[in-house]
Predict the 3D structure of the following.
Amino acid sequence: MYRISGIDNGETGGLARVRELRKQIEAQYEHVLFLHAGDFLHPSFISKQDNGTAMIKTLNMMDGSLQNFDHNMLVTWGNHEFDKGRMKHVPIMNKLLNQSEFTWLGSNIKWKADSIQSEKMKTYQIFTYDDIKVGVFSFSTDIAHPEYIEIFDDYQSTAEHYVPFLREQGADFVIGLTHQWLQDDLAMMQLPENSRPDIIFGGHEHYVQTEQVNNRWVLKADADAASAIVTEVSFDQGRHHISPQVIQLDKNFAEDPQTLKLTQALSGLNDSQYCADMGLKSDCLNQELATTKHKLMAEETEIRRYETNLGNTLTDMVLSDFATCGADVVLLNSGSIRLNQNIPAESPITVKHLEEMFPYPSDLRLIEFNRGLLSDVLDHSISGWTANGHWLQIAGFVFVHDPENQTVSHAHLRSEQEMQNIDPQRKIRAVVPYYLISNDTDHDGYTMLNESMQVDCQFNGASVKEMFKDLLTSLTVPLESNRDYRICNTTRDSCQ
């Protein structure tokens, strides 16, 4: 959940719809537990200005009022909660925690002394509903490891400790609130019986997933509250029955007026403050840079799984600039493009679109490696093909992607006219975001790439956002963006 107001100009998702949904459920049921599986403080355009304060204020409104602690609301830590991961950020994090009117679970996290601390933080929670006790523990991935965390316990040891512990405390039903990959959630449900939670509500992937293992549900909703998971749990004579449902929070779903008023005020204040800080007019974010002839595909289930026309536009633009330094290809991880909505055909592309599209620094580097390494890069790009941010938008080469068999084939550079002429020892030059090679990141899993591969180029350090802005403002006609099947998907394209 990165945007308090949702996506598609507010017509999809957003916390005003989440609040309205909760109101409707609470009108029907006496006992309602509200869970969030992490990734909400960062990254977004608004959090770049306020470090997550607006999100906390809006989440505080999920019980319908501010200044009252919500005892039925639990959140856990996603990897993006740790975007402010230095020791110098501890005061910012503690301030956000103290502003929170809900409980933070960190069952597998061991904090360093004199760092993150708040009475709002717990390692587990037990709720008593009439004669039923419900226990909740959490698990957070270690994909981001901030300086103020000593260690993350793994999912197996976490479940092996907390599930039996909560049962011993009298829990009739145990919930795992997790932020990890789906395959790890499923693996948790394959642990021995006494270590399995009864249900997992999860996050990390950005689209809805409903899976069962050993007759137990793993449930995840769409990012930015495009959907929510509502699950009824009923108990009868020591048994429980689970009925999950995916609720689409689209334009046909009502918004809570009070929450909507709050999100509009917070967004408006943030936008005007941004413009003031830039020394620009108060409506500077509405400035039209260009129009687009075709719909620009930036919604995450597309841009994180397929070639898209926006990805092609950005990578072709980068390749054109870096060509003077001998660049052969561009590898742009889709997680760096975070608009999560499409820009309709014949509509304006605004300054705010770019600010939301690139909340992270998008500086680029030219690297050089043996041609044979490209296969390892592509194998990682298609791995875990569930709308992951490490999926690459590309330029300068083509390949065939078979998602059913999880394979890459027919990969060759545009300059390689025939497959049989490929030399794995040939040096190729690739333009990549600095994040993918930096010594201070996890490389988004591209561990085969590193800073030692960097070569000199006058464009090193160039920003994708600024390059795109320059391109748009130079246009005298609408931007024309198309797919050219550089990534041919065997399930939706003709790949003969």
User: Anything to note?
Assistant: The mean pLDDT is 95. The chain has two domains: 15-248, 287-489. DSSP finds twelve helices and 23 strands in the chain.
